[in-house]
Amino acid sequence: MVWPRLNNHPPTHQELAIMINASRETVTRAFQLLFLHKVLVREGTALRLTQPVLLKDIAEGRADPPKA
To answer: Which residues form the HTH crp-type domain (predicted)?
Structure first.
């Protein structure tokens, strides 16, 4: 599934951290785990969500987040 690019200036890890009241390091670790488990993949400068159902289940507490 390919999602359209919605923003030419995606938020930085720091900006995301501020939005969710977390540290930048926590956001970076979360992204690293999502990449490691192929939930997200990089395509050039874009990110592709490869497992949207899993990510939704994690967000809604129906699945455990991936472990390192």
So the answer is: 1-53
